[in-house]
Amino acid sequence: MRVTQNITTSNFISYINQHAENLLKTQQQIASQKRINKSSDDPIGMGQVLGYRTNLAVTDQYQENIGQGMTRIEFNELTLDLASDLVDTSRELAAEYSGPTHSAAARQSVALQIKDLYDQVMQMANSKFNGNYIFSGHATNTAPFSHDADFNATYNGDDGKFQIMVSDGVEVNIVADGRKIFQNVANGGVNIFDELKNLIDGLENPDPVAGSAQIEATANVLQAGRDQINSRRSEYAPVLYRLQATDEYLTNLRPKVEEAMATLEQADITKAVVELQNLELAYETTIATAARIIQPSLLDFLR
Amino acid sequence: MMDIFGVLNMGSKALMVQQKGIYVTGNNIANVNTPGYSRQRLNMASDVPINTGIGPVGSGVTANEIERVYQRFLGVQINNETQSLGQWQAHKDSLERVESIFNESGGYGLNQVMSEFWNAWQDLTNNPSGSVERTVLVAKSEMLAATFSQNYEDLQQIQRDIDANIEGAVEEINRLSENMVDLNQKIIQMEAGGHTANDYRDQRDLVLKELSELIDIDSFEDATGGVTVSVGSGQVLVEGTHSYNLSTQANASGLQDVTWLDSSNNPVIITGNISKGKLKGWLDARDVDINNSLNKLDTLAQRLMIEVNTLHASGYGLDGSTGNDFFTVATTAAGFQVNPLIANNTNRIAAAAGFNLVPGDKPGDNGNAIAIASLQQAQTMNGNTATFGTYYDSLVSDAGLAVQQATSYYDHQSQMVLQLENYRESISGVSIDEETVNLIKYQNAYQAAAKLISTADEMMETVLTMI
């Protein structure tokens, strides 16, 4: 083949461009630490990376939901713990003052104490978390319980459950229906407020014998009421456990997804640096040889 | 005549021919870097011999013609491959711009925005009556809508930029056709005298090559030396010394069609008949690739809008409102936006799935918010086989794949053209070394011819002194 200066130079330019482009690409990979800098670098890989990214974002969100759910359960649990203690105190007082031997004044003072306990239990039942009532079902802006002057309590909420999204298409329910906890008459349970009212009525009954019978009757029912609260509390345990297990699963899943994404997306720096060195060598030798080939012509050797 | 005058005559002819050689060599050296130049060669022959008593005797040298060293079919091949090169170059450049719109490698694209949108719905499920959660949701939704319309408009902008490129290319083609007519005229005139118009032919070949880069052409040379060039489905661009113009006109979708103007300036649309060159690359990118991306983006936006709206309308806001669309209905993704009713009053976000006595009395109900947040995982796209996310991810992959494909075609094509150009250069290109050798060769011959003349002169003097 007849070789002219233009062939040499155009080849040289073409190769130098190729080397420079490869150098730039490798340098970009090292600088960004990423193997995929444009989707054309690896279209399929880019699609997968995006899938993983969505996955990570939604995992974070589920963990956030779970965190909030757990706090909510712990708060419910704490509230009901206090409420059950209050009911227990009322039961003890009922048991203590059930005989007809107590003076009217003593019973009157206990009645005041019970009224106070009644208010405290109601206060617990009307607890707010994050500005929302926790035991009024979905009517979170309505105080679940209220009572009239005669201590007749009414439930103002509904039977809604608080739902938490914990993973794709899976929701966990937290009981938020105050009736099931405090007025579970519909399911054959105890109406704690009514029972406390009975206790107050008994203590305030001017007839000590009839009153004593009333008081005595409440003691056992209040015991059942305390158990009712505690059994609701125990229902939170499996939910909490489930949330913790899901959280743990997601926490373990996360590094796996991150690893898979890194394998796909991250540049192998060692490999990239070695490649860079090779490219540098190729680039420099191309320039060096071109410099030697391009310069001389026959004219340099003619006198 | 083998006399002294014969020697003198032979010497002077040789001087002139070698000088021509030096002239041609000089011209080659001067044009070593001229694009499209083919090296020229002086064809010499021994002059007509003279019959003498001892047989025919040579009478020196004569210059026959200046020949262009050229391989015609190589030129045709280069033009054909240049058409493909132009096509892939234009295609690749346009697709790279599309790719940059869907550039998700930094993580600030639609993928991220969609994730944030769904997460905002999930945040709302945690506190369905929370005003912060509601405000954040509206902000994230506006961001989503804005990203959709931004992407859509950016794609349309590329289409408009391509139109500008097409208009520029059409003007360039018209300029080249006029150039070609001019060169045809010069070549026909010059070659009528029997000589080859070497330099004009080189220039015309270059124009043909520049045309090839822009559009696919068919060309042939007629007996007079004029070239006829046609484009599209046989529309004549250049016919000897007459040229026709190309033009553009807006089509139904507001994009430019390429037209050919006949002798009475009536436009004939040839968009569909262009099969190569940059014009084809741009048209493909504009009408196929970008349109596909626009349609997919639109499908995604519309589906998302419909799914969210349907669920949202069935739920209840904190203020008891129901039946509200979450996004306003738009004809394209460019008009995608959050319903102003909701943006202005976040209480209208329908997180609740129902009500007890009056709408809005279940502020703690997150049923509808959960239903909407769950759309993220729902197989809503592609005939219920893909989620919104995976549908979009495949859109990004497709954009990357298209660039990858066009780049590999382009790289292959540019290597091929480089090879062919080198091959052409190896035949027609000027080699400085070769010309230097020729220069010395001609110079030596010139010196020898001069010696011949001075020898004849001395001989003449010798004869004269004899008198």
Layout of helices and strands, plus pairs?
The complex is a heterodimer of chains A (303) and B (467).
Chain A: H1 5-32, H2 43-96, H3 104-125, E1 128-129, E2 132-133, E3 145-147, E4 153-155, E5 162-167, E6 170-174, H4 178-182, H5 192-204, H6 208-265, H7 269-294
Antiparallel strand pairs in A: 1-2, 3-4, 5-6
Chain B: H1 4-30, E1 40-46, E2 50-52, E3 55-57, E4 61-68, H2 72-101, H3 110-126, H4 131-192, H5 198-214, E5 217-221, E6 227-231, E7 235-239, E8 242-243, E9 246-250, E10 256-261, E11 267-269, H6 277-314, E12 327-328, E13 337-338, H7 340-344, H8 367-373, H9 388-428, H10 432-465
Antiparallel strand pairs in B: 1-4, 2-3, 5-6, 6-7, 7-8, 9-10, 10-11, 12-13
Helix pairs in contact in B: 1-10, 2-4, 2-5, 2-6, 2-9, 3-4, 3-8, 4-5, 4-6, 5-6, 6-8, 6-9
Entry keywords:
heterodimer, A: 303 residues, mainly alpha, f41 fragment of flagellin, N-terminal domain, two-stranded antiparallel ribbon, two-stranded antiparallel sheet, 6 strands, rod-shaped, B: 467 residues, alpha+beta, four-stranded antiparallel beta sheet, three-stranded antiparallel beta sheet, 13 strands
- What is the domain tally of chain A? 2
Order of strands, widest sheet of chain B: 5-6-7-8
Terminal residue distance of chain A: 28 Å
Q: What's the total number of strands of chain A?
A: 6
For the biggest sheet of chain B, the summary is: 4 strands, antiparallel
Interface with most residues: A-B, 62 and 68 residues
User: And the CATH topology of the largest domain in chain A?
Assistant: f41 fragment of flagellin, N-terminal domain
Number of strands of chain B: 13
- Poorly predicted parts of chain A: none
Rounded to the nearest angstrom, the distance between the terminal CA atoms of chain B is 23 Å
Query: What name goes with the CATH superfamily of the largest domain in chain A?
Result: f41 fragment of flagellin, N-terminal domain
Overall 3D geometry of chain B?
A: rod-shaped
Strand-residue proportion of chain B: 5-15%
- Helix/strand order of chain A: HHHEEEEEEHHHH
Helical stretch tally of chain A: 7
What is the radius of gyration of chain A computed over CA atoms, rounded to a whole number of angstroms?
Answer: 39 Å
With strands numbered from the N-terminus, the spatial order across the biggest sheet of chain A is: 1-2
Task: Look at the structure and give the mean pLDDT of chain A.
Answer: 90
Enumerate how many helices of chain B there are, as a single number. 10
Quaternary structure type? heterodimer
